[in-house]
Specification:
11 strands; 33% helix; globular; alpha+beta
Length: 195
């Protein structure tokens, strides 16, 4: 989805949201990610302006304090950016791929069931189809991707073949690079303001 994401070409509009829209987005995010509640006032401060960015291919992104936080396609689920997930790793369900799947995940490939069911992988029971998940990798500390469950975890364990997770963003894709650049820019701006 974000393999070659470039803001200058992809972004069609951006605007501050009305407070009613901001409240509605915040409520939807907290409903979708209940584990976000303890961090909600830090990540989504009520008084800070929220910017809604519309991109090509019906992608919307949420930015606050010059930081990309969440994105969605069409009216689908919201996904956190990997940078946000690295700061708050427990806000969404996790799966783990084995070492053999890492290079494919880092290339944006679909995550196949064998990479989720072999030794070195980890998959909790009861994750429904259509759930956004953090994709961890054997031997790595932080998530390497975020994806959407194409089958339930129980189906993946039973079938052990086919596409288990469709990636939506991964380390090194266009969205990751844009978020990293924005974070560096915000840090440089904060440092120049403090001088």
């Amino acid at each position: 989805m974000f393999k070659k994401f470039a803001p200058k070409e992809e972004i069609s509009s951006q605007a501050k949201t009305k407070s009613s829209v901001q409240r509605a987005i915040r409520a939807k995010l907290l409903e979708q990610y209940p584990a976000l509640n303890p961090y909600a006032d830090v990540i989504l401060p009520k008084k800070a302006p929220m910017v809604l960015i519309k991109c090509k291919d019906n992608i919307s992104m949420i930015m606050m304090n010059d930081t990309y936080l969440f994105f969605q396609t069409f009216d689908g689920p919201y996904y956190p950016t990997l940078q946000l997930l690295h700061k708050y790793p427990d806000i969404m369900p996790k799966v783990q791929v084995d070492k053999g799947a890492i290079k494919f995940v880092m290339a944006g490939a679909n995550i196949m069931c064998p990479g989720l069911t072999s030794p070195g992988a980890s998959l909790d029971a009861g994750i429904p189809k259509g759930t956004p998940v953090a994709v961890m990798a054997e031997g790595k500390e932080h998530a390497v991707a975020i994806g959407l469950m194409m089958m339930s975890s129980d189906e993946i364990m039973k079938l052990r073949k086919g596409v288990g997770i469709e990636p939506v963003t991964y380390l090194g894709d266009g969205l990751y690079k844009v978020c990293a650049e924005a974070a560096l820019s915000a840090l440089a701006h904060a440092e120049s303001d403090s001088e």
